Each structure stands twice: as structure tokens, then as C-alpha cells.
Amino acid sequence: MKRGLLFLGVIFAFMLKTAAQVTVYQEGFGPGASATNITDYQDWDCKSCIYTGSGRIGNGQTHICDLPESSGKGYAYFSSATINDLIIEQINISGFHDLYLTYNLKKAQVYDGKLSIEVWVDNKKIVSYNPTLSYTNAWFSSGPHKIPEGKDLKLRFSNAVADKAMYLDDLKIFGVPDAPQVSEKPVFTPVSGYYTAPVELTLTAAEDARIYYTLDGTQPTETSLLYQAPITLNQTVTVSAVAISEAGSSEVSTAHYDIDPVTTVSDLSAFRDTSERVRLDLSDARVVDVDSEGIWVHTPDGGLLLPKDAVDAGMGDILTGFLVGKPAVQYGVVHVEEGVFRGLSVAAGTSAPTPRIATVHDVTLQPDGYTSCLLQFDEMKYHPELGEIASVEDGSETLRIKTGDWSLDENWIWPARMCVRGVLKGDEAGLYLWIAEASQVVDLEQQDLAESVGTALVVTDAGAIYYAAHSSLKNNVLPCTQVAVLQGRAVASEEAIPDLLWKVDLDKGYLRNPSGEYLCPAESGVGLQFSSTVSTKGSRWTKDAKQGYWKSNNNTERALIRSNEQKDIRNYALSNVGQENYSEIPAVDMPLYKGYLRTLNPGRWGTVCVPYGIQSGDKAGALFFEIAGRLEDEDGVVRSVVLSGPLDRLEAGMPYVIYGESSQLALLYSGEPVAEAFSHNGLQGTFQGVNTDKVSDDATLQGKYVFSGNQLRRCAAGSSVGENKAYVDLEKVPLLSRQPEGSLRITLYQEETGVEQPVREQHDDMPVFTVQGVYLGAWAQCRTHLPKGVYIVGKQKIIIK
Questions:
Q1: How many CB atoms lie within 10 A of CB 58?
Q2: Chain-wide mean pLDDT for the chain?
Q3: Are residues 606 and 700 both part of a single domain?
Q4: Is the domain of 220 the same as that of 242?
Q5: Could you give the percent of the chain with pLDDT greater than 90?
Q6: What is this structure's pTM?
Q7: Which candidate, 705, 459, 698, 464, places its Cα nearest to that of 605?
Q8: How far apart are CA 149 and CA 98, in angstroms?
Q9: Which of 86, 134, 169, 764 has an alpha carbon 20 to 30 Å from 646's alpha carbon atom?
Q10: Collapsed DSSP state (helix, strand, coil) of residue 346
Q11: Are residues 56 and 194 in the same domain?
């Protein structure tokens, strides 16, 4: 009788699975295995779930389930206190409701037992079933058991009575799929807004929905226009649309399209030359001043003045998008008339605007390219009687200036030699440079120069490589460390400096280490020694009056000379100087400065980022550039990065792109250090490096770009960047509409990345200048014998490699 009742339970469970229900999960334990651990079993019906537990999988014919619809091939069983459970995780029940669990069960012996079932939904224990099983030795169906709704289901079956064997088969979960929601309202592509060309409007909704729309803003119904294909909008309209399906009507979507058909011009130069209302796209426009006249905007193509109410922007903000208007030039400045600025977006600048390096001659010759721009003039002097600035070297051309009230301070004195930054503006008297803050004037003769940390003894080999002597002995010789020398100053890393410090007494001829011990020749041979007193023979040295090196008083034919073979400094005979294995010049004393040294490959590109500022003349070995923007092809794919430079001074913490000119980069630190490296136009600096341990799955640089093998390469996971270098985040590099004249560009994805040709070709009669402005002759005369470096040919910068 019990078995008949159990069979009716099976029929009930079967009837429960109506046409609306579907099977969400099932497991039949087939083809089964002989006493296999759950964790070893592989033939699960649903392999996306996780199966664990101490139970076993079996296939003994004695215990195979014989109920209708059973798989009849295998089962799970729990036979002891240590073989007693099955856990199934990650059963996906999202999108279903009215969920029920059924299963087939059998006890092996004739006695009562208890099966415990725990139900977890979304990591929360929801319910436990603990049915007591009357004695029977036959299979029976259990359920349906209600399962709560959710996303992730976990089930645990366990034998609650030790040593009472149980067999489990045919787990099934049924559910009713969630009904589709009421029709979603139509989606408009593109979105509402201001457009300068006809718009192809696409309306989308659920697949089974019909879309009805109006073009006058009225409420759409089933009698309105039926959407069948994209709608061409040639004039300003308000579009309303509704989606209707068997689920009902959606909410109404409404969008306003302001259509203002105008021609698009490619750059600011073309905008200046037109007389019609046109569209001008801006990609890297920086606000360089805001005053009563309006918003002064600096772009790679030049500058323009926007009305005060055009956008809500402040100094340093970045403008992207487009504007529509007609140009009007007043006092040399481009204004925008009949302007519409709704297409512009404003973003806060992450760094100060980068000025364009200019000369008074440049501005006089081609003012259109400089008005409204932030400019920097190097090596300038001020004429107070004229209120004008001019070049220190050639004062024949001048530029009028205006300043803030700071210049009226009685303590203010114009430097005799200065660097000046300002915005080029105009009034009825002509063009002038607006210098808003005193900080925009830098006294080049009183810069924040570095301070010497002490004195070093430096030798030079035949290859113009410099080495500084350690102030401690090793086996009676002085070890040495490679340093750089910039204008008579030795430069070493902060880590190396403590080993290189000496105390030099020019009058008495003492060479002492920081402990106060005196350097002396050894009693015999070429070795050296230290003495705590000056009584030791030869404890005094004489500085050569002409060449500055130190000779031993004990034997004036000997001096501190480096052996290239032994790689140390000893008291060698002066006759060895200049020989193949000896230094070119014996040790001379030099002021020692803290700086940065790095080995370079000439002709290779790289990056650098140091925490200190670098003044003009305090660097060697490379040319330094900033990233100005990126260029895309007609398909919108980024193909190259544009560089501006070379630069004269470097700011503390700022990253730069470098081009190696020699085998060693040397930077002499000035001022106070900054704590963190900065980012500028997508070039992110780092002092400590990124993933320097080279963890293979580190994704910090994934998708970024680094210089590797003279290529600007896209990084995969596990990429790294060394200390005091930088990487490129291409998404943060401003988009340029075209390559500015005189700039350089580095192409992405090239097998051997290099500098491509400037915008225009060089003609034979073009004048050639150094970057300092020294005239070298015509291109036809110079091009075959120019040494490596950067030159200005016409108005373009080129690199000779």
C-alpha cells in the first residue's frame, strides 16, 4: 500500500510539470561508476555546477532506480558517518519562479532513516527539509519541495542517521520562466541634441513590439506613423514614440533634435578664412585665460576668443567637441559671431597648459598662428621706457606687454635676462603679451639652482667618460664610480654620493676623507694609504696650475690616475697619462651635485621622470619632448602620437619623451623634490616603476603603451616599466585634428618606430637654424654634413640621426 501511495506521488510530481514549466536543472548520475568519490566523478549532466561532498557514485544493479522516468544508470549513496553527503553549488535559477525540487530515494535496509536537505539561495540558507523515512527497501519519489526564487542555488543532501545507507537519484528542479515585462519604451539613436548635419534616427524596442511615432511632439498612438526604417531628420523636430506589444503599451519616449546644417572646417586656419557660419571641431583646446573680454582658448592650430557665456570654464580647463559660428577678426584676435556652443564639453585639466615656444620674430612674421595662445619666450630682456620685451641676443624686434598689478609693486625689478610666459592678445594699438602673474617671469640668472653636496675627485678616460674616486681604500687603491660632468660640475646619483665625498684644502694641499684622514702615497709602489696625521711622508699634494690635477708632493712625477684595466685609481707616473690603459686626465677636484644618470642607446626613444626640476644647461645625452596629442586615421584608429619640443627646462615630477643622443643621460637636480610623479597629456610618470617584479598576471599596464626596442608598443598583462620612466595612456592623450607644423610624431604598431617626416618637405632654399636660433645656412648647403640633433628647417623641426 505504501508503495502505491509513493507511486501516486510520482504521478503528482509529473502532473506538476505543466506546459508552462520547464526543467531548470537535472542530474541522473549516469552512466554511473563503481564506488567513485564525488570529487572524482566526471560525467555530471550539468557540468557548470560544482559538486563536492563525502558521498559516492555507484552503479550496482541491486540499487539501480526502477521508477518511471528514472535514468536507471547510476545513483549517489551515503553509507556511513564518513560517506554521508552531496553538495551541489552554482545552480542558475535566475529568470524563473514557482520553483520545485523532486528526487528519487531509497533506503538499503528495513528501518527508519532521515534525509537532511539544505537549500541556499544567493549565499543565504533559506530552508531545511528533514523528512523522516519510514522503513522500506524500495525506491520512491519525493517532492515537489518549494525552492525560493533568486539567482544562485546551492543544495546539500546528507544522511542524518549514521550507518543507515541511502541512495539518491533523478534530481530535478522545475520552474516557470519569468514573463516578459511590459514593453520597454523605444530607444532613440542618436540621442537628442544639437546637430550640424541631417540625422538618420533609428528607433529600437523589443523584438515583438511595433513602434509608432510622431514628429510634432504629440502623443503617439496606433494610428500614428508606424516605424519601419530609419527616419531622416533634415530640420528641427521633436520626436515622440511608443512601443506596443501583447504585453501592452510602453511609456512614451520623446527627444528634441535641433538640426542646423552647416559646413565643417578642418582647423582654425580654415575657420579664420571663411565668411560663413561653419562648424569647427576642437580636440585639445585649453583655456589659457578668462577675463572681461571672454574665454581665451589655445589650440594646436592657434587660438580664438569665445564669448564669456559660451561655456562655464576656467583657467586650465579642456574643451572638446564643436562650435558653430562665423569668424570675426578684431585687433588680430579671432572672435566667434552668431555662435552656438552647445556641442562643447568642458573637463578639468589635469596639468597646467603647455605654452608654445615662440620668438618675437615668429609672432611678427605669422601672428595668426599665435594670437590667443599661451606663449613662452626664452632669453628675453625688458625695455621699461617702451613697455616692450625683446631678445637678449637680437633686440631689433620687440613685443609690447601688459601685466597685472604685481608689476606696480615698488619692490619689483625686471630681470636682465628672463623667460616670459603670457597670452598673446590685441587692442587698438596692436598685439601685446598679457602676463597675468609674476610667476610667469623667470629670472634666468637667479634660477633655483642646485647646491653642491661636496667635492669629488674626478678622472677622465680617452672616451670622455668620467669616474669619481671613492673616499675609502680597498687593497691600497681607490675604487671609482662612473659619474657625469656638466659644465665643470660632477653629477652622481643620491645613492652613490656618500662614497664619493672628499675634503680638499687647496692652500695646504690636503686630500681628506669625511672621517678626516689624509690620503698619502704608500711607502712603495703605486698604492695609496690613509693617515690620521699629516706627519706621514707625502701627505701633501700639489694642484697643477694649468690642468688642475693633483700631484704627489713626495714625487711630482706621479698623480692620481685611473687604470682602465684595473678599474681603480692609484698613484701612477704621469708618463702613463693618455696611454691606452690609463685615464686621459688625472684626478681633479670638482663640486659634486646630486642628479640622475642612465645608460642610453643613441638614436633610441624612451621616457624619463625625475622628482627634481632640471634647469637649462643641466642636462646632457638626450633631447626632451612632451606629448601634444594623438592622430587617428579615417576609421578612427589611433595611428601616431605627436610630440612637441625639444624642451629647454624640465619641471619636477613631469614625464617626458626622450631621444638618445649619446650613451649616457645626465640630469643635474635643482630645487626641492615633489612626492609624486605627474601625468601630462596621457604620459604618466612613475618614480618607483610599475610591476618591477614582473608578475605575469599584473594588469596595471594592460592596454597602455611603453617604449620597447624603439617601438611604442601596446602592453599585455605582466608588462613592466622601470624606475623614473613613464608610460602612455592613449585614452588620455588629446585628439588632434591634424599634425601641427614643426611637430614630430611617433607611429604606433610600426616594426621600428621612428620620427616621420614633418608636415612639409624641405626645399633647398629653406634656412636652417639650431634650436637656439643660430643660422647655419640654406638646406641645400647643410643637409649632408649636419651632426646628429634637432634643427629648424623653414618653420619645421627635424631630427638628424
A1: 20
A2: 83
A3: yes
A4: yes
A5: 32
A6: 0.50
A7: 705
A8: 8
A9: 764
A10: strand
A11: no
